[in-house]
Write a structure and sequence with these properties.
The protein has about 190 residues and is of the alpha+beta class. The protein has three helices and nine strands.
Amino acid sequence: MKIPRTLALLGISAIAAVGCTKNADEDARAYSLPQELCGTQIDPESFDSVFPPGDTLETDAHITETGEQHTTATHNCVVTVDGGRAFSLSSIPATQAEGVAGYISERGFTLDTDNPEYTPTGSYEIFAWPHIAVGFSSCTESHLDSSGVGFIIDLGEEQKLKDVESLSTALESYMDGRISQIDPESCTFT
């Protein structure tokens, strides 16, 4: 009779352990996913895998408004969680580049553009690797002689995602928000 009781206790312990594990995972990220990140509207679900666990989310954005709810094409932002760098977002105009590979070359990045780990077939040209995704959108017109604007989400070499597609999805959401903010004189997009 002791065996069934012991098995019953083990069963209850196993259920309790599963319950504790689930709650621990849910509590791993105490902050809410934002609707706006670094002054840019985003789809919070698209950033779900990018945000690390922690208690406090903070951003340090550098953006210049040009009036009429527009900004310059240049935007830099660092996102921190519990005081540690989680990732950065940026948009920087290009002068000569005509695509994402050209933009990566123009910026002097050392990324293998012949072998990106993921290239989506969505609205934008994006190359992604486990720690960084780079996108590009061409200007149809620019008073500043920009050929387009490059967009980057960078987790840093030490923080890599297994799901590279999710990094690309996050960048696409950021691009949607940023493109709508950029002053048409800086770059008019197709």
